[in-house]
Automatic annotation (TrEMBL):
PANTHER family (alphabetical): CORRINOID ADENOSYLTRANSFERASE, CORRINOID ADENOSYLTRANSFERASE MMAB
Full protein name: Corrinoid adenosyltransferase MMAB
GO terms classed as biological process: cobalamin metabolic process
Source superkingdom: Eukaryota
Organism annotation: Vidua chalybeata (Village indigobird)
UniProt key word Nucleotide-binding: yes
């Protein structure tokens, strides 16, 4: 009948912001899974990190599916989302950034299949973040979930550049057309 249940048992329309955010997060995990498969074929060592991110996205989904307005303490305890994964992403970003040449131009999604799939994942991540922020602002989701998605998009961008560099693929840069 067009309704679904949250983890708290609350019935909401399928078009509710919570289910939109859950769907975007699921799409993100799928996009990262594809990027991970391409990256695995190339022997990238960061594939385990991508798998860990997918597991964290399950935790993101659990938090989103537990609106704070209807959650009991037992729900909140089971689906809380800490800042620890955010800090881990920041460490990964720093580690890969140190190995990359400075960014001097806008990069178009490119750099081989691994890199392009990571860029695509980053774009999906940005959409998921845009779906989650209103839930955080409304007090329905943990602010660390939005922080995680924000840092995750940066991680995916840096990782896309790193994959292109490791594979010896050229990153295409934006060139402004002549008027």
């Amino acid at each position: 009948k067009g309704f679904s249940s949250t983890f708290t048992g609350e019935r909401r329309p399928k078009g509710d912001r919570i289910f939109e955010a859950l769907g975007a997060t699921d799409e993100l995990s799928s996009a990262i899974g594809l990027a991970g498969e391409f990256s695995s074929e190339k022997g990238h060592t960061f594939v385990d990190q991508l798998h860990k991110v997918q597991c964290m996205l399950q935790d993101v989904g659990s938090n989103l599916a537990t609106p704070l307005s209807s959650a009991r303490e037992a729900h909140r305890k089971r689906t809380s989302f800490s800042e620890r994964p955010v800090l881990e992403l920041e460490q990964w970003i720093d580690s890969y950034s140190e190995q990359l040449p400075p960014l001097r131009a806008f990069i178009l999604p490119s750099g081989g299949r691994s890199s392009a799939a990571l860029h695509f994942s980053r774009a999906v991540c940005r959409r998921a973040e845009r779906c989650v922020v209103p839930l955080v602002q409304a007090g329905e989701a943990d602010p660390n979930v939005a922080k995680y998605l924000n840092r995750l998009s940066d991680y995916l961008f840096v990782l896309a550049r790193y994959a292109a560099m490791k594979e010896g693929k050229e990153e295409k840069i934006y060139i402004k057309p002549e008027p």
